[in-house]
C-alpha cells in the first residue's frame, strides 16, 4: 500500500506528543462508558444442539402442549457397594427413600425397578425443569445432597438422565471461564517475555489486548442478548487474545526495525503503523469475513459463535491499531530495555531464518516435496476417524451423571436413560405402534400421555442400545422412516437420541456449506491484497492442505494420546475455519512483505528477505496463538480440548513448515510468474540483490 497522505496524517497525529495522550484519554472514556452501558450483559450458553427446525426440535415444541410439560425425569440408579444382589430389605429401603424424596425434594417418585440380574435398581424422579442448565444445576445439587443423606446403608445412589447431564455440564463450567482467562494471560505473558526479552515491553501489548478482551466479553454478551444468540464465551476470549497478540507482535516487530533506522521513536512508530496496517487489516478482515459465514449455519451455537467472534475480533483490531501505538509513543524507546534498538544497529545478516530461506531457495523442488510429504503423512490421521461422541465420552472430568449411566448400562437396557419419544395424532396411536412393532432394538413401546386438548399422543420407546452409539442413531432413523409412512399420523420422533441425529446432520450440512465459503473469502482477500491470480490459488491450496493435515494429526493425537475415539460434532467445522482463516493471517504477513521486497530485490531474493525479516515474528505469533488455543484444554468438555489441540498443532505446523519451507519453495520454483497477471518491478536495489544471490551461491 502506498503512503497516502491521509494515512500519514492519521499515523503522525496518533503518536504525536499531544495526540497520543488524547487518543489514550478517548480510549479510557470509551472503555468506562461501554462497561457502564453493558455491565448487566451476561454471556449466553451454547444453546440447543440441533437446528431450530429439526424434527427433534419440532417434537420438543409439541411436547410443551402436554400436561406437566415443565417436568423432566431423573433416574436414581442404585447398587450395593459390595456388588451383591439387591435384597428385599434393600428394595424396601429404596421405596422409603423415594417416599422421603417426594416430601423433601418436592417431586414425583416411582419405583424401585430392579434389573434382571437384581444387582441394580432405578427410581424415576420427576422434577420441575429449570429455565436453563445453570438453574437445573442448583436444583440438582440440592437433590443429590438429599439423596446422599437418605440413601440406604451399604448402597450407592447416583442421579443421572438427560437433565442431570445438562446440569453437570453447567456445574463443570463453574469458574472455568476465569480459569481459562487466567491461564491464557499467563501463557501470553510468558511467551511475550521470551519473545521481547524485556521485563517491561510485554506489559504494554498484554494490557491493551486484555482490555480489548474485557470489552469484547461485554459487547458480545450484549449482542447475544439482543439477537438471541448462543455461543461459547471461552472461545471468543481465546480468539481475541490470540489474534490481538498476533497483530501486536507484527506491529512491534516492524517498530523495532524502524527504530534501527530513525532517531525519532514517534516517526518510527508512525512509519511502522503505515507499513503494517494493510497486513493487519487484511488479516482481520479475512478472519472476520470467514466467521460471518457461520451466520448461515443451522446449528444455533455455531451461528452465534460466528457473529459474536467477528465482533470480538473487530474490537481487538481497533485496540491494536488505535490504542497500542499511542501507548508505545508515551513509553518511548526505553520500553525495549535492556535491548534498546538504536539507529545503525542492523541485525546480523546470517540469521537462522536467512539460512533456511536461502537453502529452500537453492533447492525449491526438494524443499517443496519434503514439505508436502510431511503434510500427507499428517493427513493419514484422518483414516478411520469418526465424528460424534457419546454422552459418556463428552466429559473430560468425572461426573455423577456419567457414572450413573455406566451403572445403568451394565444392568439395564442401555437405552433406558434416554428413551425415544414419538409425538403423533392421538387417533393414529394404534397405527403408529403397529408400524414399529417387531423393529430390532426396541425393548418396549407404549403411550405415555396425551396433550391437554387430547389431539396428540406421546409414545415412549425404550431402545436396547446405549445413547449416541451408531446403533441407537440408526434406530431413530428407522423409526422415522416407519412412522412417517403412517397415514394422517403426522408423527415426529424426538428425544435426546433423536436430537443427536439431527445435530450430526446439521453439523455435516454446516461443514459442506461453510467450508467452501471460507475458502472463497480467503481467496478474495489474497486476490485484492496481492493483485495476482496464481499466487492466491497456490497459497490457498497450500493452506487447505495444511488445515486437512492438522485435523488429521489432531484426530490421531486425540485418539492415541488421550483415548478419545472420535471427534466431537462441531470440531471439524470450527477447526477448519480457524486453521484456514488464521493460517491465511501468516500468509498475509509473509507474502505482503515479500511483495514489498520484490520491488527492490526481485521475487526470489525478495522472498528470502521477507522470511529473514518476518521469520521471528511469525514464529513468535504462531507459538503464542498455539499456546492460547492450548488453554482450552483446561475446560471440562472434550470438544474444546480437541479444538485447542488441533488448532494448536495446525498453527505450529503452519508457522514452522508452511510459511518457512513450502511457501518460499513455491516462490523459488515459480519466480516472477507467481505474480501473474501483475508485472512486479525489476529490482531497484541491484547491488543488494547481487549480494543476496552471491550469498545464496556461496552458501
Automatic annotation (TrEMBL):
<dbReference type="GO" id="GO:0005886">
    <property type="term" value="C:plasma membrane"/>
</dbReference>
<feature type="transmembrane region" description="Helical">
    <location>
        <begin position="611"/>
        <end position="637"/>
    </location>
</feature>
<feature type="transmembrane region" description="Helical">
    <location>
        <begin position="643"/>
        <end position="670"/>
    </location>
</feature>
<feature type="domain" description="SSD">
    <location>
        <begin position="235"/>
        <end position="330"/>
    </location>
</feature>
<feature type="transmembrane region" description="Helical">
    <location>
        <begin position="20"/>
        <end position="38"/>
    </location>
</feature>
<keyword id="KW-0812">Transmembrane</keyword>
<dbReference type="Pfam" id="PF03176">
    <property type="entry name" value="MMPL"/>
</dbReference>
<keyword id="KW-1133">Transmembrane helix</keyword>
<feature type="transmembrane region" description="Helical">
    <location>
        <begin position="233"/>
        <end position="255"/>
    </location>
</feature>
<feature type="domain" description="SSD">
    <location>
        <begin position="540"/>
        <end position="668"/>
    </location>
</feature>
<feature type="transmembrane region" description="Helical">
    <location>
        <begin position="537"/>
        <end position="557"/>
    </location>
</feature>
<comment type="similarity">
    <text>Belongs to the resistance-nodulation-cell division (RND) (TC 2.A.6) family. MmpL subfamily.</text>
</comment>
<dbReference type="InterPro" id="IPR050545">
    <property type="entry name" value="Mycobact_MmpL"/>
</dbReference>
<feature type="transmembrane region" description="Helical">
    <location>
        <begin position="305"/>
        <end position="324"/>
    </location>
</feature>
<keyword id="KW-1003">Cell membrane</keyword>
<feature type="transmembrane region" description="Helical">
    <location>
        <begin position="178"/>
        <end position="196"/>
    </location>
</feature>
<feature type="transmembrane region" description="Helical">
    <location>
        <begin position="365"/>
        <end position="389"/>
    </location>
</feature>
<protein>
    <submittedName>
        <fullName>MMPL family transporter</fullName>
    </submittedName>
</protein>
<feature type="transmembrane region" description="Helical">
    <location>
        <begin position="569"/>
        <end position="591"/>
    </location>
</feature>
<feature type="transmembrane region" description="Helical">
    <location>
        <begin position="276"/>
        <end position="299"/>
    </location>
</feature>
<dbReference type="InterPro" id="IPR000731">
    <property type="entry name" value="SSD"/>
</dbReference>
<keyword id="KW-0472">Membrane</keyword>
<feature type="transmembrane region" description="Helical">
    <location>
        <begin position="511"/>
        <end position="530"/>
    </location>
</feature>
<dbReference type="InterPro" id="IPR004869">
    <property type="entry name" value="MMPL_dom"/>
</dbReference>
Amino acid at each position: 500500500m502506498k503512503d497516502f497522505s491521509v494515512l500519514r496524517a492519521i499515523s503522525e497525529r496518533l503518536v504525536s506528543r499531544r495526540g497520543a495522550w488524547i487518543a489514550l484519554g478517548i480510549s479510557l472514556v470509551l472503555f468506562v462508558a461501554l462497561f457502564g452501558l453493558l455491565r448487566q450483559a451476561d454471556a449466553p450458553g451454547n444453546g440447543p444442539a440441533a437446528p431450530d427446525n429439526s424434527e427433534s426440535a419440532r417434537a420438543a415444541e409439541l411436547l410443551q402442549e402436554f400436561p406437566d410439560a415443565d417436568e423432566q425425569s431423573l433416574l436414581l440408579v442404585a447398587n450395593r457397594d459390595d456388588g451383591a444382589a439387591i435384597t428385599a430389605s434393600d428394595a424396601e429401603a429404596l421405596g422409603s427413600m423415594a417416599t422421603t424424596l417426594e416430601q423433601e425434594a418436592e417431586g414425583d417418585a416411582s419405583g424401585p425397578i430392579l434389573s434382571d440380574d437384581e444387582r441394580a435398581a432405578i427410581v424415576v424422579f420427576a422434577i420441575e425443569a429449570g429455565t436453563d442448565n445453570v438453574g437445573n444445576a442448583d436444583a440438582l445439587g440440592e437433590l443429590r445432597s438429599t439423596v446422599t443423606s437418605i440413601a440406604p446403608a451399604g448402597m450407592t445412589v447416583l442421579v443421572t438422565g438427560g437433565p442431570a447431564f445438562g446440569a453437570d455440564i453447567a456445574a463443570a463450567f463453574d469458574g472455568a471461564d476465569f480459569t481459562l482467562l487466567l491461564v491464557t494471560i499467563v501463557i501470553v505473558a510468558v511467551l511475550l517475555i521470551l519473545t521481547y526479552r524485556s521485563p517491561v515491553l510485554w506489559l504494554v501489548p498484554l494490557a491493551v489486548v486484555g482490555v480489548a478482551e474485557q470489552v469484547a466479553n461485554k459487547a458480545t454478551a450484549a449482542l447475544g442478548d439482543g439477537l438471541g444468540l448462543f455461543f461459547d464465551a471461552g472461545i471468543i476470549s481465546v480468539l481475541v487474545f490470540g489474534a490481538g497478540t498476533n497483530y501486536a507482535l507484527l506491529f512491534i516487530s516492524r517498530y523495532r526495525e524502524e527504530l534501527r533506522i530513525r532517531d525519532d521513536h514517534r516517526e518510527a512508530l508512525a512509519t511502522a503503523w503505515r507499513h503494517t496496517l494493510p497486513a493487519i487489516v487484511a488479516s482481520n478482515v479475512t478472519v472476520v469475513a470467514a466467521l460471518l459465514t457461520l451466520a448461515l449455519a443451522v446449528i444455533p451455537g455455531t451461528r452465534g459463535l460466528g457473529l459474536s467472534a467477528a465482533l470480538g475480533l473487530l474490537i481487538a483490531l481497533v485496540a491494536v491499531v488505535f490504542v497500542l501505538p499511542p501507548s508505545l509513543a508515551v513509553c518511548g524507546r526505553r520500553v525495549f530495555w535492556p535491548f534498546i534498538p538504536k539507529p545503525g544497529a542492523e541485525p546480523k545478516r546470517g540469521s537462522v531464518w536467512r539460512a533456511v530461506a536461502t537453502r529452500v531457495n537453492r533447492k525449491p523442488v526438494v524443499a517443496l516435496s519434503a514439505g508436502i510429504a510431511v503434510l500427507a503423512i499428517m493427513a493419514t490421521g484422518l483414516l478411520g476417524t469418526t465424528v460424534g461422541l457419546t454422552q459418556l465420552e463428552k466429559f473430560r472430568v468425572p461426573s455423577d451423571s456419567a457414572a450413573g449411566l455406566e451403572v445403568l448400562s451394565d444392568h439395564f437396557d442401555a437405552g433406558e436413560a434416554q428413551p425415544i419419544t414419538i409425538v403423533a395424532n392421538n387417533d393414529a396411536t394404534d397405527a403408529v405402534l403397529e408400524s414399529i412393532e417387531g423393529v430390532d432394538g426396541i425393548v418396549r413401546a407404549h403411550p405415555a400421555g396425551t396433550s391437554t386438548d387430547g389431539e396428540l399422543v406421546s409414545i415412549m420407546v425404550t431402545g436396547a442400545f446405549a445413547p449416541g452409539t451408531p446403533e441407537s442413531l440408526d434406530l431413530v432413523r428407522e423409526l422415522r422412516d416407519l412412522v412417517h409412512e403412517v397415514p394422517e399420523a403426522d408423527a415426529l420422533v424426538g428425544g435426546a437420541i433423536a436430537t443427536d441425529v439431527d445435530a450430526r446432520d446439521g453439523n455435516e450440512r454446516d461443514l459442506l456449506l461453510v467450508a467452501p465459503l471460507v475458502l472463497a473469502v480467503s481467496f478474495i482477500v489474497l486476490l485484492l491484497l496481492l493483485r495476482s491470480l496464481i499466487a492466491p490459488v497456490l497459497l490457498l491450496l497450500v493452506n487447505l492442505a495444511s488445515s486437512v493435515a492438522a485435523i488429521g494429526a489432531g484426530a490421531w493425537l486425540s485418539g492415541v494420546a488421550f483415548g478419545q475415539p472420535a471427534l466431537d460434532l462441531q470440531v471439524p467445522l470450527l477447526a477448519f475455519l480457524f486453521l484456514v482463516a488464521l493460517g491465511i493471517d501468516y500468509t498475509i504477513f509473509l507474502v505482503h512483505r515479500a511483495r514489498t521486497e520484490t520491488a527492490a530485490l526481485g521475487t526470489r531474493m525478495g522472498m528470502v528477505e521477507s522470511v529473514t525479516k518476518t521469520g521471528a515474528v511469525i514464529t513468535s505469533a504462531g507459538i503464542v496463538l498455539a499456546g492460547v488455543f492450548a488453554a482450552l484444554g483446561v475446560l471440562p468438555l472434550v470438544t474444546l480440548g480437541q479444538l485447542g489441540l488441533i488448532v494448536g498443532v495446525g498453527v505450529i505446523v503452519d508457522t514452522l513448515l508452511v510459511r518457512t519451507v513450502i511457501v518460499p519453495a513455491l516462490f523459488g520454483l515459480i519466480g516472477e510468474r507467481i505474480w501473474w497477471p501483475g508485472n512486479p518491478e525489476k529490482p531497484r536495489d541491484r547491488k543488494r540483490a547481487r549480494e543476496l544471490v552471491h550469498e545464496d551461491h556461496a552458501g
